[in-house]
Amino acid sequence: RVQLSESGGGSVQAGGSLELSCQASEYVYCMGWFRQVPGKEREGIAAIALGTVVPYYDDSVKGRFTISQDKAKKTVSLQMSALRPEDSAMYYCAARGDDYCSLRLLKAADYWGQGTQVTVST
Q1: CB 109, CB 33: distance < 8 Å
Q2: What gap in Å lies between CA 17 and CA 23, rounded to an integer?
Q3: DSSP state for residue 88 in the 8-state scheme
Q4: Which of 57, 74, 75 is nearest to 66 (CA)?
Q5: Of the candidates 100, 7, 122, 10, which has an alpha carbon nearest to the alpha carbon of residue 47?
Q6: What pLDDT, in 10s, does the model give residues 24-83?
Q7: Radius of gyration (Cα) for the chain, nearest Å?
Q8: Quick one: which H or E segment has residue 24?
Q9: By the 8 A CB rule, do 67 and 19 touch?
Q10: Which tens digits make up the pLDDT trace of 10-31?
Q11: Could you tell me what percentage of the chain is helix, strand and coil, using 3-state DSSP and rounding each to the nearest 5?
């Protein structure tokens, strides 16, 4: 079973930046990030296939968040800039093992991380 280890997150003021990282214990083709606030559904925000440079973003984070990958390290990172209070959520790393990748496909992820909290204050 693939395990996903997340790091990063924390608290920051609006307009600030944070970076999240997720390392997989084994190679998986598609990795990305979701977020969830209490009482709402988990939403996908970014995805990328390891070994590629084509990212997928939700409109809510385009232009502010950047997802990157390091295939050798089996790691994806999410650089979050211009953070807003509405970005506050529990952020989850997700991974899918087949040969296709998109934010929509990653909603049916095979593996999930434990989650890391991001809090943006005004």
Answers
A1: no
A2: 20
A3: -
A4: 57
A5: 100
A6: 999 999 999 999 999 999 999 999 999 998 999 999 999 999 999 999 999 999 999 999
A7: 13
A8: strand 18-24
A9: no
A10: 999 999 999 999 999 999 999 9
A11: 5, 50, 45
